[in-house]
Design brief:
The chain is α+β, with helices and mostly antiparallel strands. It contains 7 helices and 19 strands.
Length: 382
């Protein structure tokens, strides 16, 4: 792409919605209109969940409740309370493994849409309010088109915006913690809506207070982004190489987004880009935190060891999996294999949730045996 992204007049007006734009690498969807409203929730009993996840695995939900209007959330709460257990919130299903037996409780499909400007911070950053069900890909594309920097490196990541604080989603030098200001959520413990600032969310490396709890359901989020024609500094060598610029360079927002997509596609990390490895949850394992002694030993083996924004020192999970002897395309258990492009797991015909969990355990055990490092899965198990 050529030229610079310029902020539109609508981005200068408090409370005004963005014009909808088709995101990078996506085609228009009839329900992606900004602040589109449906009259009622949709409730489906014994709803198949496998088609709603990127792995395509798992049994049905006792009830699937699709929410289009956040004003209907109290109605959802009342209905969910009639089912056993705590309800589970499902976005685009790109980080979820559903049990083969499914879910006996209610599953909330968050389909709320909407992005609007919400004023400015004291230091001049633009506040952007987003409904939790809004696709992250749509939001990133809109901010790029509006000339707002802070999310451009997140291009190509699937899922909803509401999922981003849950594991502090990030890539190529940017993460949710960099721009999140506050969230509005339903707190099941106190049975009311609450507003939480970013510090209260406990954001760490791919984690938060929301990660292993169903206490909160995120309903809307506010981010603070800077107006700029140029991206944040490009800190990853692979992205800099795709742009043919030195590390640390700042380039037009749309150009860096295309470069990130190029890198992600080369690893099979953009849904629909490979044709053979699309039944995936992306990275199955976190880059694990390691001790100073482990870091020293791994650096001696030329491992990619890096310090992360939360102060932790971590090593690449992909590198560890490769060092443990796993090869691309290698079958692990029937229906589950290593990707042909990246050291992660993908599902094939006949895969089950039990088999996928078994494959996760096999990789974990072999990496521990061969490298002494313990991996941690970042999948949400339902």
């Amino acid at each position: 792409m050529q030229g610079h992204a310029q902020p539109s007049r609508s981005s200068q007006t408090e409370g005004r919605a963005f014009h909808h734009r088709v995101p990078f690498g996506r085609t228009p969807h009839p329900r992606n209109g900004i602040q589109e409203k449906q009259e009622h929730m949709r409730v489906i009993h014994e709803a198949p969940l496998a088609p709603m996840t990127t792995l395509g695995i798992g049994g049905p939900a006792a009830a699937l409740i699709e929410l289009h209007d956040p004003a209907d959330f109290p109605e959802f709460v009342a209905l969910a309370d009639t089912f056993p257990g705590e309800p589970f919130c499902l976005g685009e299903g790109s980080n979820v493994l559903v049990s083969d037996t499914g879910c006996a409780g209610a599953v909330l499909r968050m389909s709320t849409k909407g992005v609007r400007m919400a004023g400015n911070t004291a230091d001049g950053r633009a506040l952007v309010e987003v409904q939790a069900g809004h696709l992250l890909a749509d939001l990133v594309a809109t901010t790029i088109a509006e000339g707002l920097t802070g999310m451009e490196m997140l291009v190509g990541i699937p899922g909803t915006t509401g999922a981003t604080p849950i594991q502090n989603v990030g890539a190529y030098g940017q993460e949710t913690a960099d721009t999140l200001v506050r969230v509005t959520a339903w707190d099941r413990k106190v049975r009311r809506m609450v507003t939480m600032d970013a510090a209260e969310c406990g954001l760490g490396h791919r984690t938060s207070i929301f990660k292993h709890s169903r206490r909160w359901t995120l309903l809307s989020l506010v981010f603070a982004l800077r107006r700029s024609e140029l991206s944040a500094p490009v800190t990853y060598r692979t992205v800099a190489a795709a742009l043919d610029v030195p590390v640390g360079s700042r380039v037009p927002l749309d150009e860096v987004a295309q470069a990130v997509l190029t890198v992600r596609r080369s690893k099979g990390m953009v849904l629909g880009c490979s044709g053979t490895d699309d039944r995936s949850v992306g990275s199955v394992f976190l880059s694990p935190e390691i001790s100073p002694a482990q870091a020293e030993g791994l650096r001696a083996r030329h491992a990619p060891v890096n310090r992360f924004p939360d102060g932790s020192v971590r090593v690449s999970a992909s590198w560890l999996i490769r060092q443990a002897g796993f090869e691309l395309r290698r079958p692990i258990v029937p229906g589950v294999r290593i990707s042909s492009l990246h050291y992660t797991l993908v599902a094939e015909e006949g895969a089950t949730a039990a088999a996928f969990r078994q494959a996760v355990d096999i990789v974990f055990q072999e990496v521990l045996r061969r490298t002494g490092v313990r991996l941690t899965s970042e999948i949400d198990f339902l």
